[in-house]
Structures are given as structure tokens and as C-alpha cells.
Amino acid sequence: MGAFETVIGLEIHVELGTKSKIFCGCSTEFGKKANENTCPVCIGLPGVMPVLNERVVELAVKAGQVLNCKINKINKTDRKNYFYPDLPKAYQISQFDMPVCSVGYLELGEEFQGKKIGITRIHIEEDAGKLIHLEDEDVTLIDYNRAGVPLVEIVTEPDIRSAEEAHDFLKKLRNILVYSEISDCKMEEGSLRCDANISIRKVGSDVLNTKVEIKNMNSFKEVHKALLKEEKRQLELYRYGEEHKIVQETRRWDSGKGRTVTMRTKEDAHDYRYFPEPDLPPMILEEKYIDTIKETIPELPMEKKERFVKDYGLSQKDAEVIIDDKATANFFEKLVSKTKDPKESSNWVITEVLRSLKEYDEIPVSSQQLAELIKEIKSGSISRNAGKKVFDKMCDTDKMPVDLIDDLGLKQISSEDKLEEIVKEILDKNSEAVEDFKSGKGKAFGFLMGQTMKETKGKANPGVVKKILEEKLKKM
Amino acid sequence: MYSVKEIKKGLEEKKFSTVEIVKEYLEKIKKEDKKIKAFITLREDEAIKEAIEVDKKIASGQELRLLEGLPVGLKDNIATKGLKTTCSSKILEDFIPPYDASATVKVREKGGIVIGKLNMDEFAMGSSTENSAFFDTKNPWDLSRVPGGSSGGSAAAVSAGFAPITYGSDTGGSVRIPASFCGVVGLKPTYGLVSRYGLIALASSLDQIGPFGKSVEDCIYGLEGVQGFDKKDSTSKDVKLPDYFEEIKKGIKGLKVGVPEEFFGQGIDKEIKKKIEDNIKILEKLGAHIERFSLPITDTGLSAYYIISSAEASSNLGRYDGVRYGIRAEDYSSFEELIVKSRTEGFGEEVKRRIMLGTYALSSGYYDAYYKKAMIFRKKVEKLFDDAFDKYDVVVSPTLPILPFKLGEKINNPMEMYLSDTFTVNINLAGVPAISVPAGFSKEGLPIGMQFIGDKFSEDILFRFAYALEQELKLDLDPWKEGR
């Protein structure tokens, strides 16, 4: 029995960052009161008609461009028909056989040697509403705020070979879409959703075996977990000759139980009865229009990374960490422009700033604050450790480091006179340690340093203390 | 009753007030509509209130707009804000739209006063108005006969003198057929000339709102009241609109008329054939050049039409699921049951038939054999009309191959009912305009209609022909006349 490989393809729905919905003027703002963002058009009252929001086409074309796709100059919308209470018209306006973009690719990161994952197509469509099942009540409510929010569906080729690759693909994809301001890609708000198709085959084979679709994965981590789990399930069936039990079906990821369960089989599959949307004429995109959109694409993550390496002398690894989040990258650049010290700036960003993001939704300090703080440390006004305390404080206040250093009483003691006095006291109190040092025990020096720092509550300038200690011990 | 011009003149010269006019029409409706049953909803109080406002305007010497003070009736599939809009269906029995259709907005903006909503075949599916879930409308010329459909209420109302102008919708003949049966003028405009926003869709790629009038001039007022680009309808076209009243003065001398053999062949009533041929001679006499040609589309066109319109309808009518508005079944234990029961109770037989037909035509495995094939034929129809209009200014035919039939005569035979549409459906497939004009009467005194078909946006030429024929025939179109 030879080795197996996993074949994965992803289908990603991304909400486009438009102010208004795809076919009406309603706001797309998240978190509004139920059904506040609705009108006769998006709740599909009789007689209403859709008018395509041009910004949607623009963003879809842009998505195609950043994912190296072919932009189709002639494309059209189609109706996908099915009954569900969250779908007000009983059809979703989508694109069937003539999507806005086709054949592109996305490159994975260094870890995967920049492997290219093919993009099959990108098409535009409208989102549906949301059902709310009340706890302990036999009632289902419907919120149509999301109905008509514009989406692109991005479909990949079955080029992904592991859960890790899938995870990296999603991270890279999100990064590019956020960078190019196509979507905010907030998975927790549902603005990025991912379904996966997965199958197993013998290495070397190019057949596509029966695939299973997995839905309901609510974070990149869950996608990773669910794929590993499903991969394991299928491998096991192959290993024991039970592969006929792998059937074409849709399985739901149950994150609580950590496993996938059958949702519907092929027999229950809908016949969507696609046909061209008669309420909207086909779209004809002029070359010039496509070019104009291209000009609006900002610097993308990979380009930014290379520039950081080249211009600021960052390591590939550090640069990759910083560019991973657009806001962080922008913050870093602002910081460098103020400190003129890329190395020190990147250290702070990679450690303290990224750490703060685990607690705060956005970077809690201004680049001005952090630049001042770095200045204070470099001038020796406070120690690096004290600087971290100031940083933590800055996360909750607009106050400048100078003021916080005073408030917290962290100003470093650099005066040699003052420190000489303190060191003298320490040496007097710890004659044993001094003897140890003299007898060649290096450790004793550290102990004496520590005692001095302790005495000054960490405010002593360690460089100065060290110098004085060395001088004094030499004389003893 | 009055022509549009008579009302406009009377109001301007203060011979009568708007309130008097509106009341006179409302009185007439209340008195006579018991027999005809054209109206589903009457809008009395609001109409009179609006009339009072128009009178104030007249008193203060303000200029009057195109339809100022004119009573207007709307087919009950044209959305009216705050006024019940039922599509003659049980499922929308109590539906009150929170918005106006763009056509309604235009009528109101031009000063028209909506006096009520008119009966129709349920969701505009039918050719006799017998598919209304509420009641049958009668033909004013013979109360035992159908008014045609689906805009039967709109045609009968104009014929009976209940309103100078009404509007219907035409997906495969639904304006022209009842216009022909009721002896009035009815226009199906070029697809895209009148906004469809707020017209409750039957088949989106075929539907057009069209006006009815007792005369060609009234019909022109009707079209001018609603035509023109609307950004809410992405299929509406921004075109230059001619001055139709100037155009009709030009006559038809030197214009070329194509007479398609297939529209005069087997199955056509002899009296109708004779009348239309007579009228063609009149056109010739008026200086038009007549040429016979072949337009082989009638049979296949009918099939293509029923496949495409039913396919679109099956999708358009999906939204009536009992979830958000309309009637909802009482007992259900799942969403599927809610939807199935609501639709089963809410839709009539013909609607169900077409939903099934359309669903089937779009199903995987059948799509290519039905929907796709129909769409290919549709392209051919377009091309054949294109070619015809390279040669001719208009194409003429009878509006229908048959005379107004008895109530109940065809209702149990859908196939025979569909055959009524043989001469009208292809016009919608091609997206071109056509007008039905009274052509005369049968021996029994039943109206016969003649159809003029034109190239896209050639309504001006259609009006020229219709007006020329009307002026020549000088028919008496009052069904209430003593002895009738």
C-alpha cells in the first residue's frame, strides 16, 4: 500500500467593503438593529427590481487583479433558485457560467516555497439574511440586514495538499484582500467564510476521488482542525479498504465535539435551476475601466515585505511578521519615520505592539508615543524594563512617556555621585559577596548588581552601576 | 363619456371642475360596474381629495400638467403605495405596497388621479381574465363573453367609459388581446420604453406596461404619461421621445406595410380575416405600399413563449412563500410545510400549472431541451423581425385569430386558451412594440382588432397607422348605446 496525499479545494465567500448593498441603497453596516438596513428591494417585495452597485463590480475586478486572474470583459448575472426563509426572493442573484474573473493564482509563503494555488473563478453575488432561533421558544425570527450585502465567491483549484497549506492560503488571501481594501475579512462578523472540499488519493495519481464538502468552520484555526480531522477520517477508511464509505456529501464541522458530521448527501442536493437574470443586462467592462481599477491597487503584502527588507534592513522573518497585518505595517512605517531607527522600531513592534494586539482590537498606542518612549530609553532617561511599564501604561492613556515616567517615578538614576553612594552601601552590607568575588566567583558580581538595582527599585542606570561596581571592586 | 382632450379642454375653460369629472366617473362605475366587474378596488375619497387640489390649482391659474385631473385606472399588478395591489391572487389578497411603481409615480407626477385598481388574470397568466381569484370581468359588448386578458379589467373599464385612460401590462398579448376583444386601442410599447419597477413581474424579459384608450389620441396621452428612462429599472432605455401628436398628422403615404402570410392562415376566423384584409385595402388607398411576405414564427413562437415566460414566472413567483407577506397557511410543522401549504392554498390552477411548467423547463437535464432551445428560437424571432423591418415600416396582422368567446368556454382547456396568443407572443419575444386598434365588428356585433407591429422604438409610426385607420373607419365604440 503506497503513500496517500490529500487534495483540497476551497470556496471562500468574502463580503465586499462597500457602503451600500449590491442592488439597493441600504447600508451594509454590521451590528445594526434587526431589519434596520432593509428596503422593499432587499426584502424582495413584489415588483421591485435590482440595480447593480457599480462599486461591487469594481471591487470584484480588483480582487481578480490582486489574485492574478483574467478579467472577463463580458459577464452576466444569473438566478440561483431555492426556497429558504432567509432568501427573500427565493432566488439569489449570482453568476453561473460567466463570472467576473477566472484563472488566477495566489502564492503561499516561504514555508511552502511560494507554491502557487490556482484560482478557478471569482464571481459576485448577494448575501442572504439570517435566521434567529429563539432559545426555549418555538419561534424563528429573520433578520434581513445581511440580505443583499455584496459578496465575492472565490473558488480555488484542488491544488492544496494539506491543512497547513489551506491555513496559509487563507492567511495570505485575507492579507491581500485587506491590503487592497476589498474587504475587512472579519471572520467573526462573517465577512469571510470558508468551505472546503477534501479527498484523498495515492501519491502520483491524478484522479480526483470522491470529495466531501465541509461547512461551518468559523476561524482559520477551525479550518485547519476540521481538515486534519476529515483527512484522518478518510485516510483511515482507505487504510482499511473501506473507502467506498466516503460518499459525496456535505459535512458540518462541529467545533465543540471536534469532528465533522453528515449534513446532507448528494441525493438531497438542490437543483438550483440557474438561468440568466432578466432584470439586469450583461456587464461589458471596457479595457480602460479595468486599467483604471488596477491603478487603485495599493502596495501588496509581498511587495511591502521586500521593501522593508531592502529599505530598513529587516530580516525576511521580521519583515514577514510586521507585514502580516496592514495596520501594524503602517504603524511601523510611521514609527520609523519618527525614530529613524528601524532596528529598534521593529523590535518594539514585534514584541510589545504585537503583544498588545492580543488584548486590544487595534494598536492601543500612537506612533508618536512609542517614538518618544524609544527616545527616552536611548537617552538613558529610563531603563528598557521601565520602558515596558511605560508602554503598558500608554495602552490606556494618551499621555506622553515623559509625563508617565514622572507619574510612575521611573526616571533612571544616572548620576554617578548618587549611584556611588548606593553602591558603597551595598558593598558594605554584603561583605561576604565581595569576598566571593575576590576569590573568583563571577556570580557574585551579578548578585551585587541585582542588589543595587533592587535598592533603587530598578531605576538605576545599569551601565553606570556596572562601571562603578567594577571600579570599586578592583580597588578593594 | 369623454375623450382626454375633452376633459383637458373642459377643465382649462372651467366648463366643469375636476371634482365634478372625478365624481361623474366614480358614479358611473358604482352604477354600471356591477354588470362589468372591472374594478377590484375603488379609490374614492383620496381621488376626490386630489381632485379638490387640482381645482385649487386651476383656480389659481397654474399651468396644468399632461394628465392633470384625469381619472386613471391601473391594472392590479402595478404597485400603488397604500392601496391594495393583489395581482388578482388570493396569495396577495391583502397586500398593500409601501411603495409606488415608477409608472404610478409618473402618472401622479403628471397630475393623473388614480381612481382604482382593475381586475386581471391571476399574476397576468391568461387571456380571458377568468383566472382572477376574485371574479370574472364581462365584455361590455356582450356580458356573456370574456373581455380578453390578462388586462381584462383595464380594457373593459375604458370600453365601458369608467376611465379615459387605464394601464395594463403585456407579456404575451395581455394589453392587445383585451383591447381587441373590448374594442379599444391598446399599446404594448417597446421593451424598455416604460419602467417595470413596481410592476409585479410575470416574466421579466417580456413584461411591459401599456396604455388603453378609446382613441389613438387617448392612447398617446396614456403612453406619454408613463414612458421614459428610469434608473430603478436597469432594462429601461434612455431614448429620444418623439412628439406623437405631431407625428400622427403626417399620415401614412409612402410607408411600407408587410403582411405576413402565416398570420392569415389556418385557424383564423373568416370574418376576422375579411375585416383585416378590407382594412389593408384602406391602408393602400391612403398611400401605403402593401407587400406580402413569409414570417414563419407563429407555431414555434408560441411554444418558446410559454417555456420562457413560465421559466421566468416560476422564479419570480418563488417569493410568495408565506414568510414575509401575503397569506400564510395556518397549520404547519416545518418551513417546508409552511411554504408548500401557503402556496397550495394561495395560488390558482393556472399559476400552479405554469410554475410547474417553468420549473421543469429549467431543471437540470431538461434545460437544454426546453429553456435553451426556446432562447435560441427567441433570437431567431428577433432576427426575423429585424429583417422584416429592414424592408417594412410596419407589419400588420389580426390581433387574435378568434372573436371574443363565451365565459367558461375555454377555461377548462388551457391549450386552446394559449392558442389565443398565437399572433401576439412573438412581439414580446422580439421586444418590439405593437398596437391593437379597433378594426370593425363581426356580424354579431363583436369587436375585431387589428395589430400593427413596428421596429424597436417606432411607436410614432404605429400611432400614425392606427390614427390613419381610425380616422378612416370612424367606428362607434360605445357599447352602452341603445339597442346594443
Describe the structure.
The complex is a heterodimer of chains A (476) and B (484). With 476 residues, chain A is an alpha+beta fold. Chain A has 3 domains: 289 residues, no CATH class; 108 residues, no CATH class; 60 residues, Arc Repressor Mutant, subunit A (Orthogonal Bundle). Chain A is built from 15 helices and 16 strands. Chain A has a 9-stranded mixed sheet. The longest helix of chain A has 20 residues. Chain A is elongated. Helix content of chain B is 40%, strand content 13%. Chain B has 3 domains: 322 residues, Amidase signature (AS) enzymes; 50 residues, no CATH class; 78 residues, no CATH class. An 11-stranded mixed sheet of chain B has the order 1-3-2-4-6-5-10-11-9-7-8, with helices on both faces. Chain B has 484 residues and is of the alpha/beta class. Chain B is built from 16 helices and 11 strands. Chains A and B meet through loops of A and helix 10 and helix 11 of B.
Label this structure with key terms.
heterodimer; A: 476 residues; alpha+beta; Arc Repressor Mutant, subunit A; nine-stranded mixed sheet; three-stranded antiparallel sheet; 39% helix; elongated; B: 484 residues; alpha/beta; Amidase signature (AS) enzymes; 16 helices; globular
In short:
The complex is a heterodimer of chains A (476) and B (484). Chain A is of the alpha+beta class. Helices cover 39% and strands 19% of the residues of chain A.
What is the tally of helical segments of chain B?
A: 16
The tally of beta strands of chain A, per DSSP, is 16
Order of H and E elements of chain B: HHEHEHEHEHEEHHEHEHHHHEHHEEH
Shape call of chain B: globular
> Briefly, what CATH class of the largest domain in chain B?
Alpha Beta
Residues in helices of chain B, as a percent range: 40-55%
Proportion of strand residues of chain A? 15-25%
* Global geometry of chain A: elongated
Could you name the ranges of chain B where pLDDT drops below 50 across 5 or more consecutive residues? none
Quaternary state of this entry equals heterodimer
Which pair of protein chains has the largest interface, and what are the residue counts? A-B, 30 and 45 residues
Which whole number gives the mean pLDDT of chain A? 90
Main structural class of chain A: alpha+beta
The N- and C-terminal alpha carbons of chain A lie at a distance of 77 Å
